[in-house]
Amino acid sequence: MADFCNKCAYEMFGEDKRYVDIDVPKLFEELSDNSYFSVICEGCGMAAVGKENGKLIIAYFKTPHDGTIKWKDNVNLNEYKI
């Protein structure tokens, strides 16, 4: 079964929260500062949800074959709330 983060679930299925498998705000809340949690979202692909100095950080592995990572710093948690 495919897993979706809040943002991708909203884009695919609208406001039906049943499709949220990777709850980014909840993960963020549970993380210790300066730690990360890896996820695989059907929409985002391989990613890491992190907390650095109290701020949400998302890392997307844009091209897994060459290891390139795209960091998205200071992400607004509201982007992941539906």
Protein described:
This protein is an alpha+beta fold and 82 residues long. The protein has one domain (6-75). 18% of the residues lie in helices and 39% in strands. It contains two helices and four strands. The chain has helices at 6-13, 24-30; strands at 35-41, 45-52, 55-63, 68-75. It has a four-stranded antiparallel sheet, covered by helices on one side. The longest helix is centred in the first third of the chain and has 8 residues, at 6-13. The mean pLDDT is 86.
Note the overall shape: globular
Spans of 5+ residues with little confidence (pLDDT < 50)? none
- Structural class, from helix and strand content? alpha+beta
| Distance, first to last CA | 21 Å
Q: What's the tally of helices?
A: 2
Helix percent band: 10-25%
Largest sheet: 4 strands, antiparallel
Task: Chart the SSEs and their pairings.
Layout: H1 6-13, H2 24-30, E1 35-41, E2 45-52, E3 55-63, E4 68-75
Antiparallel strand pairs: 1-2, 2-3, 3-4
Task: Please sum up the structure shown.
This protein is an alpha+beta fold and 82 residues long. It has helices at 6-13, 24-30, and strands at 35-41, 45-52, 55-63, 68-75.
